[in-house]
Amino acid sequence: MPLIRTIQIDPETRLGVWSIEEQESFFRERVNISPDIHHPHKRLQHFAGRYLLVTLFPEFPLEKIKVSDSRKPLLLCDSFHFSISHCGDHVAAIVSTKAAVGIDIEEVKDKIERVSHKFLSPSERDFIDPRHSLPHKTICWSAKEAMFKWYGLGSVDFKENLVLQPFVYQSTGFITANFVKPDSNTRLYLQYIMENGLCLAWTHPV
């Protein structure tokens, strides 16, 4: 079974990570959707993400998913709030019946270091552990991606609008953050796990 991690955050919120080892036909037999995606691997990721949603909540109404103008998949009925992230052969999803959620899964790669000046403010760069610079920055990026997906309306400056409070680098932990925009000034709480070269970060209702 390629479901490699599940977390029951609370009675209304669940998280899962799937390692994609199946062929597309496996998901097509179980997920009744017809994605307009031509790239085979992206289509496989899409199927796996949708299948993960119904694995976490079997009653999840996949057929009611719409895509907003900002490209965020959502349910207009708000019966479930969800977020999906893909990375190579892994897909992560978080689902809640309470309120907005966000999730991101990332590989620890050098490109994060190269672009870190674009998403980390000077105060955030100050708390990066120089002994673990790349994984620490990867956690920051993944956390900000999860915040971006939580917001869901696009037009976000990762350096200015997504503000992380200092946190010590470790393999698992918690982050306090502020989402700062004229239409939304919100304190968010995130969790993360760094394992096997992958970083998983998420935010959920408290």
Automatic annotation (TrEMBL):
One of its GO terms (molecular function) is magnesium ion binding. Pfam families: ACPS. One of its GO terms (cellular component) is cytosol. The keyword Cytoplasm does not apply. Keywords: Transferase. Belongs to the P-Pant transferase superfamily. Gsp/Sfp/HetI/AcpT family. This is 4'-phosphopantetheinyl transferase superfamily protein. It comes from Chitinophaga fulva.
